[in-house]
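Sample intake sheet
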Amino acid sequence: MQKNVRKIELGQTSGDKFMPGRRTISRTIDPCLQFVLTIIVVIIFSSCSSENGTTIELTGTTDWQNDTRWQIDTVEYNGGYIEIIHGFDGAFGLTVHNDGSIYVSDIWRGQVVRFTRDLRPNGWLGMVDGTSSIISGWHYNGEPRRCSEYGAFDMPHSVDFDKDGNIYVADYGTGRIQRYTPDGTLLGLFFDNPPSTNLALDGTANAYFDKDYNLWVSDFNLHRITKFDSDGNLIGWMGERTSGEATGGFTVLGTSEHSTSLYGFNKPQMVRVDRFGNFYVVEIGNHRIQKFSPNGTLIGWLGARRDGTITDGWAIDGLAGETDILGGFRNPVSLEFIQGDTMIIVDNGNNRIQKFTYDGKFVSWMGGKLGGGVTNGWETTGLSQGGNDPGMFLSPYDAIIYNNKLYVADGHNGRIQIFDLL
């Protein structure tokens, strides 16, 4: 494994993104020429400066297992490090297994990629492009075929595991959930024969199990959430009916539509359940988080009101609007519970991650700063800005905590960033 070290300025605006294709091409040129180019890059980056920038060391390692697509950078950050996995076209979904393996859904390549706990590529799921069209088992060679055929993925988004360790992949593009054994054997589709066409899934953005292994599905296109018990039996859906009335709980009757009202949803992206059984619905279309008790009673919503003020806790009335003010959201996409009574929310449209208490009080945020630079860990003031320097995000889609590390699916930067300081 070769390593190279270079200096960069976090606050600079170079417009140069980490593009997987550029890394792959660079490894095909003559080694001597590549060495010269590397020295030139070091000189260029070292000479750049920014008034708000922070100088860091970047160490890259390449050519793992002869797979030239992936590159790992290690960056000094806030007294610790960020490890960055490059090589994705669209890193949207992110899950860490109990054994430390990392599963990433690449929505634009139509594959789920697995990495070992030490960040080495360890196979992928999907359909192998070519005449054989292999769909089952972990693949270690070839390229994926992104399509809607059985066994392939069109736009895979989330990955989770049932009580037997089987793998569930929610594919937004096909509106279905595919099931695999731990060794990658394709078991088939989940809920592929609903008792009524009105109950069929459509636009499954995320599908996650709670601690009791009930499966919660965010039905993005149908503006509703659907719940199944631990045996895979349908409990029902929740949202607003086409008649304009909220279900007020789970039902198997009628059809749904988008809504700005409480108890209704507009493009729900994710559902998460806390240790008390309360469930939280992350809505892109309404720029808010709704919180419900285990029986489906509304506890309140979190975000910014349309007049620009922040709820500063769980509100029980009013309509939500988008904002860049801390404590509010522009297209929130995911929620994760962390140590104590705290949660982190990925604020996709604002290119940042925000931390809140269970009471809905804003705590702090991380990401690129407006005007240059990045937050020094978690900060409590300021506005965010998207970017491609380490520590910045560009349309992040998922963030989770595992083993005291923060993992972020940095969607439009095509990478996973792993922070060892929270």
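Comment: The mean pLDDT is 87. Residues 326 and 381 are 8 Å apart (CA to CA).
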